[in-house]
From TrEMBL:
Residues bearing PTM N6-(pyridoxal phosphate)lysine: K192
Active site: K192
Name of the molecule in the record: DegT/DnrJ/EryC1/StrS aminotransferase, spore coat polysaccharide biosynthesis protein spsC
Family (UniProt): Belongs to the DegT/DnrJ/EryC1 family.
EC number, UniProt record: 2.6.1.50
Length: 367
């Protein structure tokens, strides 16, 4: 079976973990601090705080922004339930919005329609490694003073065009996702772009926000009581994270190479797929193909030994019993999107099997 997702682990990662194990110090320590610093440097952001999961990171980001009961939080329906969970943890009211017509990212137009005086924050995930229209939302933030949380769980290392051409040097200028909003969160779950097995990070140029996150993530040894959390990352996780981060550029390069191969072959076979453009540098956390027979394709691929999935298990509006007609674009991409294997450890033989299987099945079931 060619799995849909698998972590990219090697001897370097193993050695990093053994070194921490041998030191006898495996709880939160100096390696966590170093990991925070290096992630912040990687993303050109001043401050970072490591935590035990991406969900914890989002929970703390919301608390740092003083989001509380009865506040409205805008988020896309087309995203994993962990995002909704974090909003519910703080007692806020989730306001779901649709995606764009042509890609799975949050719709600027629908967000604008649903803004009101109770809106306190907008959560913007960059889905499948493809940057959202964060440049538009920054303008919205300036106009209304509503903070933005960027969700980098699937997009660490992706970037968006800042302007067409920089003065004098004729070179396009790109800015990394995560450095546009007020605060950003990352997940390092096993199948993410890089992993600490489980873990997360909160990033911001605002020291006050990161200090708030840091104060809330650890409940122990405090003079005064208030509700705090046990959200610390360990040095074991950080050691793996540091090793993985040193390889992240390679991981992204390999994903882009595989995406290029898929794109070339699928274009020749009239198989439609989610494309990036010159304004966005995707990191291809997912490679998405389109079909009106998604369920059938997924089942037949599994029988052929290729694991494909729906990239979002179920849109949030379906969980909450909200009419799908209000989320027409989300419903369309949910029904038609299929995610196929793409990760750095895929070898040439596996890629050939994936390509042969998909091109054959597209003809067989007339996708």
């Amino acid at each position: 079976m060619i799995y849909h997702s698998t972590p990219s682990l090697n001897e370097q990662d193993k050695e990093a973990l053994i070194n921490v194990y041998s030191s006898g110090f495996i709880a939160e320590g100096p390696l966590v601090s170093r990991f925070e610093e290096e992630i912040a440097n990687f993303n050109n952001i001043k401050y970072a705080c490591a935590v035990n999961s991406g969900t914890s990171a989002l929970h703390l980001a919301l608390l740092a922004l003083n989001i509380e009961k009865s506040d409205e939080v805008i988020l896309p329906s087309y995203v994993c339930t962990a995002v909704l969970n974090a909003v519910n943890y703080v007692g806020a009211i989730p306001v779901l919005v649709d995606t764009n017509i042509d890609n799975p990212n949050i719709s600027y137009n629908d967000v604008e329609k649903k803004l009101n005086k109770k809106t306190k924050v907008i959560i913007i995930p960059h889905m499948f490694g493809l940057p959202a229209d964060i440049n538009k939302f920054v303008i919205l933030r300036k106009r209304y003073g509503i903070p933005i949380i960027e969700d980098l769980a699937q997009s660490l290392g992706a970037s968006l065009l800042v302007n067409n051409i920089e003065e004098n040097n004729n070179i396009p200028s790109y800015k990394l996702v995560g450095s546009w909003g007020d605060i950003s969160i990352v997940s390092f779950y096993t199948t993410k772009l890089m992993t600490t097995s489980n873990g997360g990070m909160v990033l911001s140029d605002n020291k006050y926000l990161i200090d708030r996150v840091r104060e809330l993530k650890d409940f122990d040894q405090r003079e005064k009581y208030k509700i705090r959390f046990n959200y610390k990352m360990t040095d074991l996780q950080a050691a793996l994270g540091l090793s993985q981060l040193s390889q992240l550029a390679y991981f992204i390069q390999k994903r882009r190479e595989i995406a290029g191969i898929y794109s070339s072959v699928f274009s020749n076979h009239s198989i439609k797929y989610l494309q990036s453009d010159k304004d966005r540098k995707s990191v291809y956390y997912r490679f998405i193909i389109f079909t009106d027979k998604a369920e059938s394709l997924i089942e037949k691929c599994k029988k052929e030994g290729v694991m494909c999935i729906r990239p979002v298990f179920k849109p949030l509006h379906r969980y909450l019993g909200i009419d799908g007609e209000l989320f027409a674009n989300t419903e369309n991409i949910y029904k038609r999107f299929v995610s196929i294997p793409i990760y750095p450890s895929l070898d040439e033989n596996q890629r050939d099997i994936i390509i042969r299987t998909l091109t054959s099945l597209f003809k067989e079931i007339n996708c």
